[in-house]
Structures are given as C-alpha cells and as structure tokens.
Amino acid sequence: MNRQQNLLLSFVRGGWSANDCPSRRRPPPRRVARLSFELLTAGRELADAAGTDLHAVVISGDTEAFAEELNLEGVDRIHAVPTEVGEFNHDIYTRSLTALTDEIGAEFVVVPNSVNGLDYAPAVAMRTGRTYVSDAIDIAHDGGLEISREMCGSKVETTVDVDDGPFVISIRSSEWPPAEGRGDADLSTFDVDIDADAVRSRVKGFEEIGGGDIDIGEADFLVSIGRGIEEEENLKLVEELADVTGATLSFSRPIVDNGWLPKNRQVSQSGKQVTPNVYLAIGISGAVQHVAGMKGADTIIAVNTDPDAPIFDIADYGVVGDLFDILLVIEEFGDDPASI
Ligand SMILES: Cc1cc2nc3c(=O)[nH]c(=O)nc-3n(C[C@H](O)[C@H](O)[C@H](O)COP(=O)(O)OP(=O)(O)OC[C@H]3O[C@@H](n4cnc5c(N)ncnc54)[C@H](O)[C@@H]3O)c2cc1C
Q: Is 189 helix (H, G, I), strand (E, B) or coil?
C-alpha cells in the first residue's frame, strides 16, 4: 500500500437532457458538471499548500470520457472506477471511494457539497476514520486545516480549525473558479470488487418531471423572477422576454411554492446553484437563501421598485423601477444580454 500523502478528489457529473431520458430508462450522463472543475481548483490549491499529489477519481458511467475531460492542468493521476451501474449509487460510491482512499493513503479527500456528495462523504469519512467538514467555502492549510463556512443562512461566516486529520471535506459550488488548461495526468483503472449483496439500493426507473429538460445551472443567461411578478398570469410576460432574449428562466422560491413553476427552476442555496454570465433578477428582494444560490454569477442585474432591496448590495447594475415597465424596455435589446 502506498502511504505517501495524497489528495483525492471525487467528481460529479452533469445533468441529463430530456432526449436522453425517456421514462424508466437509464439516462446516459451528459458531461462533467462545472462543480467538478471547481473541485480541481480547490484540490490543486490544497495540494500545493500541503505539498501532496493531486489524484482524481471518476466512478461509474463512461469513466474514460469523464477522465479525459478532467485531465486538466495540475492533476497528477486520474483513477477510473468502472461499475455495472451507470448512475449514482450510495453503496458503490462509498465502497469505491473508501477502497481507493485506503489504497493511495489519501490525507485529504475532497468532494462536492452536492446532493450526492452529501450522501457519500460522511459514510466515507466514517469508514476510513477521517474527520469530515462539510460546505467549505475556503480552505487554508497550516499543518492542520482552517476551513471557512457560512452559517445562519449565510449571515455569518465562521472559521473552523480542524487539526485532527486525515480529512474528508465537501466544498460549496461557485466558491472556486473552474480549472482550465489541458493536463497530462496518468490515467489508470481501479477495480473494486463489490459484493452484489452489499449494494442495497437500485434505481428502478426514471420519470421526467415538468421542465426536466432544463438545467438552470448550465445556463449562460438567466432571467430570474420573484414575487414582484404578483400573479401567475403575468409570467407570460417573462416567458416572452426569455424567448426574445434567448435567456433561460429561473425563479425565487415563492414562485415555486405557489406551484406556478417546477422546482428544478428554483435558484437556491440548498438546491440548484447557478453561475451564469448574466443573472437578471426581476422583482426579487435578495434574501440570503436566494443570494447564496446565485452570487457566483459574473454579472448581476437587478430590477426592483425598492431602492433598499438587498439584491442591490450584490448587483453590478441596478434599475429602480416597476418591472412591468422595464420588461418591455429589455425586450427591445433582443438577444444581446451584454447590451442591456
Ligand atoms: C430555510 C429556508 C430556505 C430557503 N431557501 C430559499 C431558496 O433556496 N431560494 C429562494 O429564492 N428563497 C428561499 N427561501 C425564501 C427566502 O427567504 C425568501 O423568502 C425568498 O427568496 C423571497 O423571494 P422573492 O425575493 O421573490 O420575494 P420577496 O422577498 O417578497 O421580494 C419581492 C421583491 O419584489 C419587489 N417588487 C414588488 N413589486 C415590484 C414591481 N412591480 N417591480 C419591481 N419590483 C417589485 C419588492 O420590492 C421586493 O423586493 C428560503 C427560506 C427559508 C426559511
């Protein structure tokens, strides 16, 4: 067993398109998700600070293709773990990652703070006897670790000193830039023998939910609508705007809670975090839970009648005014968001 200290990253894959995903058939994963590339940056920074190699692991699905996509600057080795199931599975991920962590003697295991990451990270930490810290937004290494996290709905930032390694850390999306530049990592296959009885859950089928074709996390230009839109009937105004500008529509929670639109369109702290080039927030106040899901956008434009709305604190551009007037003006700019 190799006992050198290594840093191991475990990845997420992107969403599935509706065409890929007829009901009850296994959808082929489309691509590696942006958070995975952010994970590479966070991992490389930590590996440099700790003086370790950076290993990455892709588990299940088209591991060769994913490994190729993740072969970016700064990655030393990529392990592909082929499995019989294509989709995420708690037991397979936990057992594969546990076996590989032990095999390479990883000091740090860094995973996404995604729904799946939060599923297997604690189990891997428990099985491998590691300290687990979730939802990191910054990591400093000074022998031990100093990990920054947000608390109380992102109102308070805390720094947690964790000296008692080795570690499993899950990182929040949009806190590190995605890695770039082709790499020359060693690629290898890591076979894990998992007893069929140990796999206690199976996906029996897939059902497309309304609007399931859209992954707002992948959109470049989001027009996001809040309670200021007042009535369901008025949503057709923003649908027209989205058509004209080529934007993808997303929403704050009250719109989804009202049942007007599906949950997969909700910008959220705990659900879908978004990082578009342009985020146009219309009639959204900027509550902490909403802002935590979209503050990674490159350019934020807010439209609100209230000049003191918190959304203006993070907006690059703001328009104080009635959205019903401004929607008509924006439509005139057509499909060039940069000109808005
Ligand atoms: C545990 C928890 C988790 C949560 N998670 C999420 C989450 O993930 N995502 C999320 O979005 N929310 C979440 N929330 C809810 C969040 O706290 C806010 O209530 C919500 O984001 C507010 O949505 P809003 O900005 O659309 O509505 P409001 O806060 O009601 O704001 C409406 C805004 O529209 C403006 N306005 C009104 N009329 C007009 C007009 N004609 N023209 C222009 N502007 C106008 C108003 O000035 C106001 O600022 C969560 C809450 C809790 C407690």
A: strand
